[in-house]
Amino acid sequence: MRNVAEVQEVEGASVTAMKIGMRQSSLSGSVAEQRVQRRLTREAPGLEALCQRIIACRQCPRLVRHRERTAQEKVRRYRDWTYWGRPVPGFGDPAARLLVVGLAPAAHGGNRTGRIFTGDRSGDFLYRALHRAGFANQPTSIDRDDGLDLTDCYITAAVRCAPPDNKPTPHELDRCRPFLLEELTLLRQIRVIVALGQIAFRACLDTLKARGVPLPSPRPRFGHGQVAVFANDLVLVASYHPSQQNTQTGRLTEAMFQQVFDVARRYLDANSGQSTTG
Ligand code: SF4
């Protein structure tokens, strides 16, 4: 494992392509969303089909109950919202070289808005950093119609349904892992993975192992800013999760978080043109 400070800065090229986003058009129905979905169906059918399968998933009884009950009960400040209340698929650029993996949708964030890291403080923190690092066209993420667009970045989670107390069980993580595995297969350009928090970090290692990527020995351990390099120069960067618990206590500052994405950017630029997740 290398620390972020050890990473050398070099120049490189970025990939820009059609973006996945607002794919839940059949459920929300704006004209803009329907246009995006038609384009996805045409240009990234595998990823679009995966997103639809994720949205329809009901494999984890505890999480299905929780996400649907939360969507019915709501919280006072969002009582006028129609909550999403379903699994939340990934979001971003199908040609992304950067994959950001979070833990799970927030009960009143992604589970409300239907887009990952959208509508909560963690998302604000994340998209500010992505915007500064050049991966997002704006620093805010409010709802699926807010115009957010990612370039060279795709965001997903270890578990796609909001879990009680933000704690998925090991079984729930196991059940949801095939979706992350499939994303890694379909997102063929991925070279850098940023794992947000220890659970996401472990989920990434387990998924890479399932994908046949040899893990270093000893197995990489989680630590903010730690970097593990795998076969084909695939890189996994560990970060504290941008939860309010971490950001409000100063455990994770904006500068610390920014450094993670600056490192990701430098690795991407250093390895442009090389092969991928295997
Ligand atoms: S957590 Fe994953 S596997 Fe479980 S119900 Fe949600 S989408 Fe399906």
TrEMBL record:
GO BP term (any one): base-excision repair
- Pfam families linked to this entry: UDG (PF03167)
Family statement drawn from the similarity comment of this UniProt entry: Belongs to the uracil-DNA glycosylase (UDG) superfamily. Type 5 (UDGb) family.
* Keyword Transport in annotation: no
Q: Which UniProt keywords apply?
A: 4Fe-4S, DNA damage, DNA repair, Hydrolase, Iron, Iron-sulfur, Metal-binding
Species for this entry: Candidatus Methylomirabilis lanthanidiphila
Q: Which CDD domains does the UniProt record give?
A: UDG-F5_TTUDGB_like
Annotated Uracil-DNA glycosylase-like domain ranges read 89-261
Please name the InterPro entries in this protein's record: UDG_Type-4/5 (IPR051536), UdgB-like (IPR044147), Uracil-DNA_glycosylase-like (IPR005122), Uracil-DNA_glycosylase-like_sf (IPR036895)
Spans through the membrane: none
This chain belongs to which protein, by name?
Type-5 uracil-DNA glycosylase
A GO MF label: 4 iron, 4 sulfur cluster binding
